[in-house]
Amino acid sequence: MTEAKNYDVLVIGSGAAGLTVALQLADTARIAVLSKSTLQAGSTWLAQGGIAAVLDPEDNCDSHIQDTWVAGAFLSKRPAIEHTIRNGPPAIQWLIQQGVPFTRDQQGYHLTREGGHSHRRIIHAADATGRAVHDVLIRNTLTHENIDIYEHHIAIDLITRRKLGLAENRCIGAYVLNHQTSHVSVFKAPTVILATGGASKAYLYTSNNDGTTGDGIAMAWRAGCRIANMEFNQFHPTCLYHPKAKSFLITEALRGEGGILKLPDGSRFMHKFDTREELAPRDIVARAIDHEMKRLGCDCVYLDISHKSSSFIKEHFPTIYERCLDFGIDITREPIPVVPAAHYTCGGIVSNEYGCTDIPGLYAIGETAFTGLHGANRLASNSLLECVVYGRSAAQHISSLPLSQLNNTNIKIPDWDESQVTDSDEDVIISHNWDELRRFMWDYVGIVRTTKRLERAKHRIHLLKQEIAEYYSNYKISRDLIELRNLATVAELIILCAMQRRESRGLHFTKDYPEQTAEASDTLIAPLNFAWPDSVRCDDTLKKLSNDETD
What is the pLDDT of residues 321-356, one digit of tens each? Predict the structure, then answer.
């Protein structure tokens, strides 16, 4: 019999978004937090640069809103931007109250500047801000008596009333695999929050860790949620290029403090692509680097900050200095070899300013969500800001609901059925499919696209999904198989969205439609048999998030 665990709130994901909402709700609700690896393994822990917020008296929210709007190629939703930016300073104050040790200078907290920002507004903890934030949130979560942490647990699929043939659809839990014991449990909760991050692992080269496989997006899609703007995959311009340096990011702040991009011959090139040069938004810088690498046939370009003093570099970028030194690169004396790498998913599960999705009881926050904030390109350091702001907003909305009236403990949920499956003796197929998917996504759906490349990718993903479905139906599940299934689903969504966008805007650049259309619209995909939420819906504003609804 499948074990059942009952909670008021189930949080799937243990990064900044998930832990923020858990801490905000824990005083009045029993919370379960699922982490598919260790708590420190998420993308939050790896974030270097900082958090964008209006904290300088000479700065203002309107300026930050405008910078976000411009970076998003005028596709962002103004209400989403305003909600995020205006709630930014209180979110930072909450982090400070939690104990995050942001870097100080003589004027107070030190603020740096990154590409696309018109002011210094990036609050940071040296060059390891994500780790500093995550470490504090983890510590506070572990010590809260109402929060139970389940490491090495990966959600397989969401459970909804509609799936069980019941009226008034609502998400009521999830099937969850403990991949250390191979045991499947049912986690029942009247409120489920997806905070599972993005899907950058769909690409061969990524700055993220192995966990960014689009799990929440794929589960929400299978459960009946709309997905939007998956074609906008941000490629961070500067990932360390070294055979032994797996997924090590070189923060945008290094360019913000004067780092210069150079070709192998030592010449600069960004002035040929944008008047902002190294401080142009990430999509422009990534395409410029990609263009120069292909033009010259070189393996990488170089990011040079050696003209700054050694003490300045070591004080501002201690993590990067030490990590590069481990690979024999002294950044106080020589440039850093860099390449673009998949970094952030700007699209995701359609949700509003409270994280409400199309399914009552199901919330999506952080990178896994599409709120309209980022538009066609995320502005640097708006990601951690989004996690904390929307974590707090979702908690506010959930707290306003009568959880006691949403009790679902009496609903009979079927056991996880493994009676028709066997142990696999061909796990090599999983690794081969994983490698094939990531390679053709990089080749055909990468920084520069064409219609023909996208058609090839669509054909390949169709065949791959058939093979994965057959494998999933006949063999016992594992974390690798769950992630491969999710990644294939998300890759198909990326391809379908990219094929629908017949223009070049922000992070989506296609040679067949190189110009930007006059009217900006979202790419919205709805599952077959999609139905609007019934009487228990969160908020009718979900209907207003897109100008275009497409099956």
Answer: 999 999 999 999 999 999 999 989 999 999 999 999
Domain interval for residue 271:
237-342
Catalytic residue chosen out of the listed positions 282, 392, 438, 505: 282
Across 42-58, average pLDDT: 87
pTM: 0.89
CA of 209: how far to CAs of 35, 193, 197, 348, 456, in Å? 14, 22, 11, 19, 27
The residues near 238 (Cβ < 8 Å, ≥ 6 apart) are 249, 250, 252, 254, 255, 285, 289, 303, 336, 338, 339, 340
Do the domain assignments include residue 546?
no
Is residue 73 included in any domain, yes or no?
yes
- Dig out the tokens for 117 from the structure: 């920002």
What CATH number corresponds to the domain at position 368?
A: 3.50.50.60
Max Cα–Cα distance, the chain, nearest Å? 70
**127 pLDDT higher than 60:** yes
In sequence order, which residues have a C-beta less than 8 Å from that of residue 85 and are 6 or more positions away? 53, 54, 61, 64, 65, 68
Instruction: Give 380-407 pLDDT, tens digit per residue.
Output: 899 999 999 999 999 999 999 876 555 6
Q: How far is the C-alpha of 22 from the C-alpha of 19, rounded, in Å? A: 5
Identify whether residues 302 and 251 lie together within a single domain. Answer: yes
Residue 282 annotated in active site: yes
Token pair recorded at residue 360: 């009552």
Identify the bridge partners of residue 160 per DSSP, sorted by sequence position: 171
Shared-domain flag, residues 383 and 454: no
Which pLDDT value is given to residue 183?
93
